[in-house]
């Protein structure tokens, strides 16, 4: 896998690596100061309403849809630096479908193997930008990925609030990351995090981006569009190109097909 620094422009080889492996790692994309400021915003009073009560358990805390409630985070996810990096991967027009900050405290357990599409039940890929707000190690419950697992939706079963891959991944890779490193991976890439065996908190922030050509019925308006015709362009809109009758029909048909692969309760 090719690892590049923030000074390099994403190249054809980097995109090819993403196509083959389902992810790329970029070192030193953000500064430690930027990450400290982002943690401060995540923990600010205006973000407390974003605590996800469904997934939060013990010392493992999830904050979802932060960008909808915090203007500083909204600016972070739509900044030109991110948009310009993502453009060669996603295309000229895309929006933020979801964001989630995860604080994995001491003793927090495993978040099991899964593909994100197993939760939302659609075929098309969206793009996960995983930002290391703190150091990510095996000991503190960092990120594991399975190279090449992103080519199709795999069988899952529902276990409590989780969708869990029905299999044993071959040759998983641990992503060692320093503060400010990022990982871009496909929503179809198998991934998990393991227990935090340290006394510190492991922080990560994940932003999910999606082409405006694709349709997601699970996200209500307004939609934060961040790229237009290949240029950074942040605005909330009431609709986007992918919300058309043909895509709606395709989604209903694919849900029926996916029900054979995904065991939803």
Describe the protein in words.
With 265 residues, the chain is α+β, with helices and mostly antiparallel strands. The protein is built from six helices and 16 strands. It has helices at 12-21, 32-42, 71-77, 80-90, 117-120, 245-258; strands spanning 3-5, 23-27, 60-64, 94-104, 111-114, 127-132, 143-145, 156-159, 162-165, 173-174, 182-186, 191-193, 202-211, 223-228, 231-237, 262-263. Strands 1, 2, 3, 4, 6, 11, 13, 14 and 15 form a nine-stranded mixed β-sheet that branches. A four-stranded antiparallel β-sheet has the order 5-12-7-10, with no helix packed on it. Strands 9-8-16 form a three-stranded mixed β-sheet, with no helix packed on it. The chain is globular and about 50 Å long. The protein starts with a strand and ends with a strand. Mean pLDDT is 91; it is low at 1-9.
Helix tally? 6
| Residue share in helix | 10-25%
How far is the N terminus from the C terminus? 37 Å
Strand content: 25-35%
Low-confidence spans: pLDDT under 50, at least 5 residues? 1-9
Mean pLDDT: 91
| Structural shape | globular
Radius of gyration: 18 Å
> Helices and strands: which structural class?
alpha+beta
What is the β-strand count? 16
């Amino acid at each position: 896998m090719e690892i590049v620094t923030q000074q390099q422009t994403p190249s054809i080889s980097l995109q090819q690596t993403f196509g083959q492996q389902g992810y790329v790692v970029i070192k030193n994309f953000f500064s430690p100061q930027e990450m400290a400021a982002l943690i401060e915003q995540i923990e600010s009073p205006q973000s407390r309403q974003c605590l996800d009560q469904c997934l939060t358990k013990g010392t493992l805390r999830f904050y979802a849809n932060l960008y909808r409630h915090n203007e500083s985070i909204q600016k972070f996810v739509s900044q030109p630096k991110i948009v310009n990096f993502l453009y060669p991967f996603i295309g000229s027009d895309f929006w933020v479908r979801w964001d989630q900050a995860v604080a994995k405290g001491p003793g927090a357990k495993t978040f099991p193997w899964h593909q994100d599409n197993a939760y939302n039940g659609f075929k098309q890929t969206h793009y996960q930008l995983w930002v290391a707000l703190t150091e990510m190690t095996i000991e503190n419950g960092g990120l594991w990925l399975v190279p090449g697992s992103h080519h199709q939706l795999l069988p899952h079963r529902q276990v409590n609030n989780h969708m869990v891959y029905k299999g044993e991944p071959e040759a998983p890779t641990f992503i060692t990351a320093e503060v400010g490193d990022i990982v871009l991976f496909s929503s179809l890439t198998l991934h998990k995090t393991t227990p935090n065996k340290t006394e510190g908190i492991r922080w990560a922030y994940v932003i999910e981006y999606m082409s405006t050509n694709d349709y997601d019925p699970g996200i209500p308006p307004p939609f934060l569009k961040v790229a237009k015709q290949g240029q950074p362009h942040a605005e909330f809109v009431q609709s986007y190109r992918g919300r058309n009758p043909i895509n709606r029909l395709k989604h209903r048909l694919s849900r029926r097909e996916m029900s054979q692969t995904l065991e939803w309760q």
